[in-house]
Amino acid sequence: MQVLKNIQINVQIPINKSKREVWDALLNDIESWWHKDFYVLAESQIILEPFAGGRLYEKTIDGSEGLWYTVSSIHKDQTIELFGHLRPEFGGPATSLLKINLSENNGTTVLQIYDSLYGVVDEAKKQSIESGWKLLFTEGLKKYIEQN
User: Fold this and answer.
1) What are 8-25's pLDDT values in tens digits?
2) Which residues pair with 101 in a beta bridge?
3) What's the Rg (C-alpha) of the chain?
4) Which domains occur in the chain, in start order?
5) pLDDT for the residue 88
6) What residues contact 101, with CB distance under 8 A and at least 6 apart?
7) In sequence order, what are the residues at sequence separation of 6 or more whose Cβ sits closer than 8 angstroms to the Cβ of residue 125?
8) Are 39 and 66 a contacting pair, CB within 8 Å?
9) How many CB atoms are located within 10 Å of the residue 27 CB?
10) Phi and psi for 90 in degrees, rounded to 5?
11) 3, 14, 1, 17: which is closest to 94 by C-alpha?
């Protein structure tokens, strides 16, 4: 029998750019920094619609789409909150409430990722998701923005 659980994931990544630069890259350059290992659909692009009700999704040339998250709130230059579903083939079923927050201290921006999952999740899945967020935002966003 599968047991429903709630897990919390907190990841902090320092980025050597201003909060404004990180915010702009996070929302407007996502296709440039999204890590190749995170695409689900073949030959797709990742799109973020940065407004409440907007989607974070993949889309292919032939019109196929895959929804990652829906934006629930956005606070300019500071926070974006999203909700989505973790399908069974990716370790679910579970619901994810994701919050990405930016804070700045002496020219360094701290990207804080808070992911709360509820569903069929365990410690192994928690470790996998935490590693995934670190990879996506360290090898993706951080690397992209610090090199540009």
Assistant:
1) 999 999 999 999 999 999
2) 79, 112
3) 15
4) 5-147 (3.30.530.20)
5) 87
6) 78, 79, 111, 112, 114
7) 7, 91, 94, 117
8) no
9) 18
10) -115, 20
11) 3
